[in-house]
Amino acid sequence: MSVEPLVTTSWLNEQMKSKDWKEKFCLLDTTWDLPSSKRNFVEEYNQCHIPGAQYFSLSECRNKEASLPNTIPTQEHFEKYVSSLGVSNDHHVILYDNSERFGLFSAPRTFWLFHVFGHGNVSIVDGGLPKWKKEELPTESGDQNSCQVTEFKATYHPELFRDLAFAKNNMESEQAIQVADARPEGRFRGVQPEPRPDIPSGHIPKSLCVPFFGCFDRQKNVMLSKEGVNEYLKVQKLDVNKDLFVSCGSGVTACVLAFAIYYATNKKVPVFDGSWFDWQLNTPNNETWQIREEINNEGNLITF
User: Fold this and answer.
1) Which stretches of the chain are DSSP H helices?
2) Of the residues 26, 209, 215, 248, which is catalytic?
């Protein structure tokens, strides 16, 4: 089933009034943030969420045995986890998160996970919980994660996943494909710190800086129009008609950029799951990948 990847708060509110809402849809609060935020996501959910939403924890739906913080879970883990939230293969899954800064931040990571595991019937609420509350739509409190367990069967799609070996081979190739880095320019250029103090900033050679938040209307904290996203990507010199994959710090905001590209162009792009953290921690002589800047013959600053 083909569904719109981005839906409005008003659309969601209307669907929730339908008689078959609970049979056709499953609503998930996917709120997550960087550890430095020191937020208690479960407590926030218990205090306020959209009625009927279950809490989907990216901290739980991951490979906890991996050395990196946001590593994709196994297929079995994903199946078991989403089944515990009442998600079936027949559901249209609706995602939102509670990001005051951007309107959406972590929902695209969950969106990507569902697509990786074969469930394309999934959408994200534009503007998330902040927009929902601003419009004075109904909310509820309390622990609602007590739904009937279902049976979700996943089908893994490896074409949406990229690992360190792929990123290294691509960097060394004379026919390298595009790498879009979703982090802010300061971190990409190596002049601002990474969230983890043990990880120096900089970027993978041959990559492009395409900050994820450039895809948003920052006045309203909603996604730009499809035309607006495409224009932004063009300005950042990213050619969506050619092969590419996306990266970031630890695999979360790369999914925001991947989602924006899918929303605007209907093109699914793979995510480098370990992203910059994986590159820095596991690339020999990684100090050679730090930012270097020079002035070219035209007097422009170039980075590589």
Assistant:
1) 9-15, 21-24, 41-47, 75-84, 107-116, 128-134, 164-172, 185-189, 226-235, 253-265, 275-282
2) 248
The fraction of the chain above a pLDDT of 90, given in percent, is 84
Identify the CATH number of the domain defined by range 6-156: 3.40.250.10
As a whole number of angstroms, the distance between CA 241 and CA 254 comes to 18
Could you read off the pLDDT of 229-246 as tens digits, one per residue? Answer: 999 999 999 999 999 999
Q: What are the structure tokens assigned to 170, written together?
A: 């691509």
Cα separation, 96 vs 28, whole angstroms: 7
The DSSP 8-state label assigned to residue 125 in this structure reads E
User: pLDDT by residue (tens digit) across 71-82?
Assistant: 999 999 999 999
Length of the chain: 304
Give residue 95's region: left, alpha or beta (phi > 0; psi -120 to 50): beta
Q: Does this model's pTM top 0.85? A: yes
Whether 287 shows a pLDDT value over 80: the answer reads no
Is residue 48 annotated as a catalytic residue, yes or no? no
How far is 210 from 35, CA to CA, in rounded Å? 23
Superfamily name and number for 159-303: Rhodanese-like domain (3.40.250.10)
